[in-house]
Amino acid sequence: MSLNTIQRALRTSSRGQTLRLAAVSAHRRASSSSSSSSSSSTSKPSYVTWSTSSQLLDNWSKNETLSQWIFDRIRLMSPARVHLCDGSDQENEMLLTQMVHSGTIIPVNKDIRPNSYVARSPLSDVARVEERTFICTENEEDAGFTNNWKEPEATQQQMTELFTDCMRGRTMYVVPFSMGPIGSEFSRIGVQITDSPYAVVSMRIMTRMGKEALDALGADGDFVPCVHSLGQPLTRGSADVPWPCDKDNKWIVHFPEQGRIWSYGSGYGGNALLGKKCLALRIASFMAREEGWLAEHMLIVGITNPEGDKKYVCGAFPSACGKTNLAMMNPNLPGWKVECVGDDIAWMRVKEGDGRLWAINPEAGFFGVAPGTSYKSNPNAMNMLKQNVIFTNVAIKPDGDVWWEDMTDEKPEQALSWLRTEWYPDQNTDAAHPNARFTVPASQCGVMDPNWESPEGVPVSAIVFGARRSSTMPLVYQARSWEHGVFMGATMNSETTAAAAGKRGVLRPDPFAMKPFCGYNMGDYFNHWLSFSERTDESQLPKIFHVNWFRKNSAGKFMWPGFGDNIRVIKWIFQRCDEDSVESDIATDSPIGFLPTEGSLDLSDLDVPAETMKSLFKVDPVEWKNEIARNQQFFDKFGDRLPARIQAQLDQLKTRIAQAEAAKPKQ
């Protein structure tokens, strides 16, 4: 079948019924033309694979800006094939089968977990690479010291050189997607170019990907261009590998002022799924500042009490600090219900005519940390992982099912580790990587909130900041005001986890859980948060709280049971949302904010000693003096970009802690 014949067929085919062209190029299609025609006459998919043809592209999209951009990328990257994605089941099955044949993924035992697969990456590609993540603004000060800055013009030239011929021998996939429900005024359209089929099938889970997103873009809509390459072109005679990447040369580059993303050398997670951290946080946070809204690293949950009253809560927690467990909590208090809107990202804005902050989850799936997930910690997550899952860097048991640390009380007698080696429980190594992941559609979660895909979002009553802290921070406390709450977010410090490359357990600043994800100067980001008390009546804004599930005793053991018992803390937060931000029967003032009064936290049927509860709420002036010094050292780096009101809040805290220390009885 000649290319001209194909083009004539496309011109006569109806919209959304483009012929399937599965062969490598026009001169190699003749032998398969019969089967291709048969396929098109039955299921008629709308995706297209071709060598290079403007006619095929014109039939796929009427957006001239998009078409020109795609052709520019083709000329730069020199792919052997181009695949225009439609997001269909047939396309997904084709890509999964292709990756099974190439060794990129392994099918899980279909009798245990139907339509599920395991991917395994090399040691060099297992997490976000913050030291290789860059923000390219015209002025270095606009990126701020919390970001790695590069000059945009020189960096674009560097990217052009790096991406030249980077897809030689591979297929270029063009992936249209929507962050947020199709048609919502909150939503943003992106288009990702990638040579990773793993990224394509993952983006299909994590976003609204395919024809609907392309239709929403239309002929003249705007989109965020996202360019990704594994950085391992195939030359004649060279052998491919199951997980291509460039182990020594990774770049995740953002141009926030232009709304563009380039990512090179990594096939893993947020480095390759560019709709997630790159667009939905780094680029979106810049957009949000410009347009007057917030793009945040937050879960969203609906909480319903036994009387049927419902409130929505957003929570900012660093990665691998329990966001997913909280978002899908099974409450240990009778009559309480928790429903999930999202577990990772929230886009919020003041609703016109309403005055409250409303939030959407821009994602369509979960990209969760597997180790630690179990029927004990998160039964709802375990139930949704029964089918249609892509697991990455987990272990495989002899029965063909998956396993990871703390998934079960007893370890399997043996397994194939994520490193493709035999693993036994007496070994001093992990069977699954600590940052092993599952990628699964949100629709499979049995506790999704009825409004999780509402185009207008949900109204937010409370914002909760949380971090992994072994000491200092009490179980829960409340801000006195919106300004004080912004200060609480700005002074978040958390112990590092396996979600990012580097040493674990190191205490570092992570304001709003956004340090790795804020796309501009964080001092300006603090100021943007402060501005919301001027955008609406402060009484309409959410109450702000801080929680710490991870405080330890002198023996190094967690003092709070966590998981389903966290509803006891959420209940107190729920009650405080109905009160003014002053002392009450359930809240008492302290140097750091409002704490629960003794007996106000519902501990029914919970076996936690009174002394332990006292320790969980201890505000130690010595520890807090160290905390203040740490925060001052961090704030000093902002120079004149730090809002004066944030510094004033730290000064006031210093005074209150000094007063508390002076009032403390001498030993």
Helix amount, in percent? Answer: 25-40%
The profile of the biggest β sheet is: 10 strands, mixed
Quick one: how many beta strands?
A: 32
Give the CA-CA distance, first to last residue: 92 Å
Structural class: alpha+beta
Shape: globular
Count of individual helical segments: 20
Instruction: Tell me the β content.
Output: 15-25%
Overall pLDDT: 91
Which residue ranges are poorly predicted, with pLDDT under 50 across at least 5 consecutive positions? Answer: 1-42
Radius of gyration: 26 Å
Task: Describe the model.
This protein is 29% helix and 20% strand. Residues 1-42 have low confidence and may be disordered. It is an alpha+beta fold and 667 residues long.
Features:
10-stranded mixed β-sheet, alpha+beta, globular, 667 residues, 9-stranded mixed β-sheet, 20 helices
Short description:
This protein is an alpha+beta fold and 667 residues long. The strands form seven sheets. Strands 1, 2, 5, 6, 7, 8, 9, 10, 11 and 12 form a ten-stranded mixed sheet that branches. Strands 13, 14, 15, 16, 17, 18, 26, 27 and 30 form a nine-stranded mixed sheet that branches. A five-stranded mixed sheet has the order 3-4-20-25-19. The termini are far apart.
What is this structure's SSE topology?
Layout: H1 3-12, H2 33-42, E1 48-50, H3 54-60, H4 64-77, E2 81-84, H5 89-102, E3 105-107, E4 117-119, E5 133-135, H6 140-143, E6 148-149, H7 152-163, E7 171-179, E8 188-194, H8 197-206, E9 208-209, H9 211-217, E10 224-229, E11 251-255, E12 260-264, H10 269-272, H11 275-291, E13 294-296, E14 298-304, E15 310-316, H12 323-327, E16 337-342, E17 346-350, E18 357-360, E19 365-369, H13 379-384, E20 390-392, E21 395-396, E22 402-403, E23 415-416, E24 422-423, E25 437-441, E26 458-466, E27 476-478, H14 482-490, E28 493-495, E29 507-509, H15 522-530, H16 532-535, E30 543-547, H17 567-576, E31 587-589, E32 594-596, H18 610-616, H19 621-636, H20 644-663
Parallel strand pairs: 2-7, 4-20, 5-6, 5-11, 8-10, 10-12, 15-26, 26-30
Antiparallel strand pairs: 1-2, 3-4, 7-8, 7-9, 11-12, 13-17, 14-15, 14-16, 17-18, 18-26, 19-25, 20-25, 21-22, 23-24, 27-30, 28-29, 31-32
Helix pairs in contact: 5-8, 14-20, 19-20
